[in-house]
Amino acid sequence: MVELHNWLVELREGLSDKAYALGWAAVKALPGSLSECLFNQAADVIARCKDFTQLRRNLARVIGVDGPEEVPDGLVRDSIRSYARYWREAFCLPTMNIEERFSELDISVTGKEHITHALEKGHGVILALPHSGNWDMAGVWLVQTVGTFTTVAERLKPESLYQRFVDYRESLGFDVVPLTGGAVAPMQRLREALSHNGVVCLLGERDLRARGVEVVFFGEKTRMPAGPAKLAIDTGAVLCPVHCWYTSRGWGIRIEEPLDTSRGVEFTTQKLANVFEKNIAQHPADWHLLQPLWLKDLSAGHLSHIEEGVKRLEREKDD
Predict the structure, then answer these.
(1) Is position 104 annotated as part of the catalytic site?
(2) What does the pLDDT look like over 262-284, one tens digit per residue?
(3) Where exactly are the structural domains of the chain?
(4) Among 103, 287, 293, 295, which is least packed by CB within 10 angstroms?
(5) Which of 154, 159, 192, 205 is catalytic?
(6) pTM for this one?
(7) Are strands 238-246 and 251-255 parallel, antiparallel or unpaired?
(8) CB 195 within 8 A of CB 48
(9) Distance in angstroms (rounded) separating the CA atoms of residues 76 and 286
(10) What angle do CA 299, 77, 217 make, to 5 degrees?
């Protein structure tokens, strides 16, 4: 039975890799207007055929309604369309004319001066953002503006799929560090980048390693990664929240003012969560979070994993 389960997992992972490979090949071969139409139609069908209960729970908190059943169907449809647009653009990005797109991107960015001022201080800058809009497109703008930056990637399964995404992002000029399984711990690589006055970008609202800190987010408790705040405090780097969203034919990217990190990791992470909350509320459809995030929604197994992570951190502090 165990062998059958393992075989099914391997089959599913292999099919996932082949599906992404097919997506990359197909979208690159289609005219942009046709791929946009097809992705929107597919998103609309999926939004009608699935209930997306967890997405509705997440959006209910964002828009301030009592429950998932009160989330408008139109917002769910727009959310799935936004998510589909991210993937359509991801499949197209490797073949885009970046130089032509740069002027369009550059116009859409506000708060550029915060990066300039941070780098003038000489300790690097950390840009922390949620999974909203097209963060890869923001990365393209950043590479064209200041050069290569360092980021961390979740280790997807199978390995071939993870490597496909690493190759894709590195082709855009990103320096990608694996969250797990790398030759060097990710925090060490990030510190090295900042020690050379580099730029680090971190997606910061999902605590993937159960090593985060508790925050209040849209009125409820969850946990967010401590990494952005801890890195800024340990290295003296400037920490700026960033938000990405979609406009009808383009992108919006806002770099916020630096956060005050003088009051510790927990306080700084809560301040970061507050900025995320404000920005997500302005563009709820573009927040691509279909998974459980709040503690109230997590399974018993996930909560147990978090509890173990908290105990592990406490032991590390004692040592």
Answers:
(1) no
(2) 999 999 999 999 999 999 999 99
(3) 2-318
(4) 103
(5) 205
(6) 0.91
(7) antiparallel
(8) no
(9) 10
(10) 45
